[in-house]
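User: Hey, quick favor. My workstation is busy. Could you predict this chain's structure for me?
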Amino acid sequence: MSNYVKATNFAVKDGLASGNPAKIIKGTEIDTEYNAIASAISSKSDINSPTFTGTPAAPTASFGTSTTQLASTAFVQSAIAPLLPAGLILLWSGSQASIPSGWVLCDGTNSTPDLRGRFVIGAGSLAASATGTAGASVTGSISGTTLTVSAVTFGTLAVNDIVSHASILQTATISGLGTGTGNTGTYTLTYTGSTSSFTGSISGTTLTVTAVASGTIITDQVITGGSVTAGTKIVNQLTGAAGGIGTYTVDISQTRSSASLTGTYTLASTTLTINSTILRVSAVASGTLAVGQFLTGTGIDFGINITALGTGTGGAGTYSLNTGDAFASTTISASGGVVTVGASGGSKDATLVSHTHASTAVTDTVAAHTHAVPTNSVTGPGNNGGGRFVNGDNGGGNVNTTSGGEHSHTVSVSIASAGSSGTNANLPPYYALCYIMKT
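Assistant: No problem, here it is.
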């Protein structure tokens, strides 16, 4: 783009004396001026839909201006920046190698979270950060309704806590304190099958129960009374109503006549998990704990939330949880959502516990009876020479089966284990894209 510069000063000519050759305006001078003007005009943009070349500049409007004024690149950048702030994460459909400038792959580097191979779920804002524990892990044994704790790995025991172990098939609740007041000592348990009193006899490894005076018979009860071999334990039930009259398998073969017997559930000393609905907070680093907040942290089950205040009213103290849990002292993030930003969990692999299902059915006891079979409805080799009757043999009468006396029929079915684990078996159908973050 050029500007017009006048080559001839025509005003000077007006001041020259008559007869001075320079006073004459020459055609070449006029032509030079017109050519210069034409050249300058041709290098300028039109007002209507101009096309600029080079690097045109324009004044930068203040942020938020909304007029027909031209927008400079500086104005555009200031307008876009709030819309794409640093830390924004998007899905990128291109290749990893073609991620645009100003964005980086979320792979755990460059201050990004590692989102490779992960699903993302919505998080709630962090309301508080605290240190706390729930439940306990102990070494203990059980005999009937007595829990004896010999060591505490972490936590505190309390009334209404639930004792958990793979061998305990019932819900065993701490219903009272004995010599223990939160740590080692004895505690009273309440659960179905802690003890039972019944009449029974043993032949080999089969216990036959004919009457139950009290309680419920369950697996792992140790039987005493009636000269039963010490330490004899019930392994499983074979027939009858669950926990009542029927037959059971015991672990020690013996022969004992019918007698009054007692069953006492027994679990040898082992590691027990004590699930509690009491959250014990020792410190709050920031924020305030409140009812409805969801908790995340090492060892905390998914979906745990605060349902009521105890001795704590936002800071250190106790709080009630929606369900029992057991975790050692850890940093707890509390939020209005199920999880807080940065929380992780879940597994892409499916882990199924190997197991079997036992099904036992007992028909009602029936009196002695026979079954009539019409001979004219039976086919096969005839003439009563052995085998089955043919149509018309014996004149078409009935054949009665032999009476079996009063009896019942027992049907037992055992379903083989179908448990298995599978790598990536928890993944739904998926399509992989790159998560990228604005820097």
